[in-house]
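Data deposition worksheet. Section B asks for the primary sequence of the deposited chain exactly as it was used as input, without tags or linkers unless they were present during the calculation. Section C holds the resulting structure in token form. Section D is free text for depositor observations; keep each observation to a single sentence. Incomplete worksheets are returned to the depositor.
Section A, Depositor: J.P.
Section B:
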Amino acid sequence: MKPLFSKGPSLGVRLLVLVVLSVALMVVDARFTLLKPVRSQMSLVLMQTYWITDLPQRLFQGVASQFGSRTELVAENEKLKTENLLLQGRMQKLAALTEQNVRLRELLNSSALVNEKVEVAELIGMDPNPFTHRIIINKGERDGVVLGQPVLDARGLMGQVVELMPYTSRVLLLTDTTHSIPVQVNRNGLRAIASGTGNPERLELRHVADTADIKEGDLLVSSGLGQRFPAGYPVATVKEVIHDSGQPFAIVRAVPTAALNRSRYLLLVFSDSRSPEERANDAAQAQEAEKNGEPLPIIPATVPKPVAVPAVAPTATPAPTATPLVAPTPASGAVKKPAPAVTPAAATPPAAAPATIRERQ
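Section C:
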């Protein structure tokens, strides 16, 4: 009778067989290439197994990354928006500072070409009346500004001061309808009068002969004949010349060289009223004082000259004797009336009175 369950090899024999088979496979795989196709096929099967076993973990990481990355992206987006806004504000400020620097450099370059003393002023207001072209600057009477003082920018003349206040001034622009300025063509010296038209981009030359030598593109400069604007400053450029055979005068239109609608920083020109001889004498005295090491102040033309002081000095000696004799003569309260007698010119008549009184005695 056969047993129901036949006995196979023992576990030790099986282990030995498996060990020998494994060693043989490793030797064959290391020495030969016979098992490469088998390995490649098995790798395909094992790859699917790896992908299936790793699927839960990858799903969990994907869901977690989706929620986490969205929060990070929102925060990063807000941060970038804030930085972008700040950088745009700084860029706008930098652009404004760059333009301001350019304007100031142009103004400094133009002031280097001006022989007179100049001072920088800033535009702080404009006249709201559309029919007048006036601006307000931040320099006034306390800063030495005077009525009629020329004002220019980096490109040419802009106008003149027409109203003074302690710390501000009002400037009338060239293009105002009530303003006119004597000019001359820089090419040939032809003189004319440039008047404002109410248009900030246009000037007109009045009473220019139809046969006058003037053409498009000519530069108009101040002639200095009005004793208000110094000579030689750019005023406008001729844009159009219209000749009409039936009219005695030509129509000449010009464009101001100054940026009347755009200039923010201006120059106030302080003209030197000294004569050429006085300038030469002052320069010679300054050079001589510099050589001697003793600085000598230059007397400006506006200061009264001290030449008249010696002429008044001799007449001032009898003044004390004249005052007791002249003072009792007014019988009424008219003593206050001869108050101007303090001046040297008024002191001379009483000087003759003591002499006549002594002769009578």
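Section D:
Confidence is low (pLDDT under 50) at residues 295-361.
The first strand starts at residue 117 and ends at 126.
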